[in-house]
Amino acid sequence: MKTTLSYANPAEVETECLAVVVVDQGEKDKPAPTVLGGNQAIQNAASELLASGEVSGKMFETVVIHRPAGLKTRRLLLVGGGKAKDFSSSELRKLAGTALRFLKPKQIRSLFFLPPEMLSGAADAVKAVVEGAYVGDFDADTYKSDRKDQRIEELTLLAPANAERPTLEKALAEARVVGESQNFTRELVNEPGNRMTPTALAERARKMVVDVNSPHLSIEVLGPERIRELKMGAFWSVAQGSDEPPQLIVMRYSPPGAPEKPVLGLVGKGITFDSGGISIKPADGMEKMKYDMAGGAAMLGAIRAIALLQPKVKVIGIVCATENMPSGKAQKPGDVQIAMTGKSIEIINTDAEGRLVLADGLAYARQLGATHLIDAATLTGAVVVALGGVNAGVFANNDDIYAHFERAEQRAGEKMWRMPLDDEYREQIRSGIADIKNSGGRYGGAVTAAMFLKEFVEDTPWIHLDIAGTAWTEENKSWIALGPSGIAVRSIVEFVKDMAK
Ligand code: BES
Ligand code: MN
Ligand code: ZN
User: What is the C-alpha separation between 295 and 138, in angstroms, rounded?
Assistant: First the structure.
């Protein structure tokens, strides 16, 4: 998708379709739909339809006016944005996606979008529209022979006449990088387990680094021998049951002029298929466990965006990639494993494998010099029970890093909810024979999983994102296709941009 800015008069653009946002400025039971922004010609073109009562401006409503009077566009698309007082860049992001997904199957290939006037400024609106458009553009149709490759080829944003052009151009360029990176993540997550083995994931990571072509981004992939040499007993215990060799993907971004500290470590769970291992999962729904590498893929997408945006802060990216399989060589419940830090772990359930690979991944990030940590993982079914598909779970061992992250997730328009890490939960993962056990049972399952990770993070300020419920969108929505969502990429990028300030 080509994305550009135009400073033309909206009434004068000759295009297949011009999209504008309609919000409801009325009181309860008395809708007053109004076009947000644009000049008098745009308002006039929509006025008859808006006065008719046929359009309310409710969220995601889409109405097309053909050959609108007084405008040169062939179609005027009105996209509903809900109540005016609740309208923000999060809504706008979804409206851009909605407009794209509405037009895609209609053989329309180029779209002009009029970003509404926003309190948060024109740059913020541009960013939201472009990011939302990329989200909407993605379809998980790689393996459909009859896929139509319906793509919007050109998206042009109409900037207000009084706009500060360099600011808007910068917002557009950044949003394009972030949108493409999020979709890069989604492509990885969409791949099935037979095609996205740990080796294949490492290959994709290498290719990404080559494509980014930055002298400040490097990658190293450690195979089974190196993983064993590093004494990553927790990571290895998961990998040992699979015929596919595990891969530890290590990326380093060090831009010139970045201070020695802080160094942010990004650690992702890269289980390319989670069968549960010997504690095997039920057959029903097991096919979905190909997305158990979504945390790792999010880190790859985030690193891609960071290397292209070039914030002045050092970042290390680590993805622990392996399958979790049952076999004659697989670990068993009751086994005791020694993690890289030397902590002993009693394996209660081989299906609690994400925390095992992350334990060594987090410790390794610290060994490499990370002063701050973020991990992302499809870690627990319990977080899906707690928060469903709406919010990702966020855990933090430090209120200061959490405050920064919360602002980042808001700027990114990604919904997340903070979960607790009280010391009392530690009891649930106490082991009779080892330092810790890998399952705290059903109650508070998302919290005890995070408590397990905390043991390996110690005092390093740390954010843990449990994205099990949000990494896969269960159904088609107006702004996003069924399939991988690419959650966490945008928040992490915002966090890093803020860190570099
Ligand atoms: N990958 C799963 C968690 C998961 C569940 C992701 C549903 C996406 C959707 C994880 O490895 C797992 O199996 N967790 C167990 C832990 C339990 C055995 C302590 C779980 O949540 O049931
Ligand atoms: Mn599991
Ligand atoms: Zn898993």
Answer: 19
Binned average pLDDT, 10 residues per bin, the chain of 501 residues: 96 97 90 92 95 94 97 98 95 98 93 92 96 97 84 93 92 98 98 98 98 98 98 99 98 98 98 98 98 99 98 98 98 98 98 99 98 99 98 98 98 98 98 98 98 98 99 98 98 98 91
Is 355 designated active site? yes
Query: Cα Rg for the chain, rounded, in angstroms?
Result: 24
Contacting residues for 64 by C-beta, under 8 A, at least 6 apart: 17, 75, 76, 77, 78
Give the pLDDT confidence of 92-127 residue by residue, as tens digits: 999 999 999 999 999 899 999 999 988 889 999 999
Closest CA to 248 of 262, 273, 268, 218: 268
Residue with CA closest to ligand 1 atom 14: 380
**Nearest-CA neighbor of 455 among 356, 334, 347, 317?**
356
Ligand 1 atom having least distance to the Cα of 274? 1
CA gap 221, 246 in Å, rounded: 10
Model pLDDT, residue 118: 87
| Phi and psi based region of residue 325 (left: phi greater than 0; alpha: psi -120 to 50; beta: remaining) | beta
Catalytic residue among 355, 437, 454, 490: 355
Residue 480 DSSP class: S
Q: How far apart are CA 411 and CA 414, in angstroms?
A: 8
CA–CA dist 302, 177 (Å, integer): 10
Task: Count Cβ atoms within 10 A of the Cβ of residue 31 and give its class: 0-12 exposed, 13-18 middle, 19 or more buried.
Answer: middle
Q: How does strand 372-377 pair with strand 263-274?
A: parallel
Two tokens, residue 270 = 């890269």
Residues 142-174 as b/e (b if ≥16 CB within 10 A, e otherwise) read: eeeeeeeebebeebbbbbbeebeeeebbebbeb
Find tokens 């390794």 and name the residue.
364
Among 289, 293, 380, which residue has the most ligand 1 atoms within 8 Å of its CB, making it the best to mutate? 380
- What distance in angstroms lies between residue 275's CA and the mean position of ligand 3's atoms? 8
Around ligand 1, the residues with Cβ closer than 6 Å are 274, 292, 349, 351-354, 378-382, 384, 439, 445, 468
Q: φ and ψ at 105, to 5 degrees?
A: -75, 0
What are the tokens at 378?
Answer: 């499809």
DSSP code string of 85-142: GG--HHHHHHHHHHHHHHHGGGT--EEEE-PPP-TT-HHHHHHHHHHHHHHHH----T
Residue 497, SS3?
A: helix
Distance CA 471, CA 481 (A): 12
Nearest ligand 1 atom to the CA of 438 is: 19
Ligand found nearest the CA of 270: 3
Tokens of 96: 């851009």
Ligand 1 centroid to Cα of residue 305, in Å, is 29
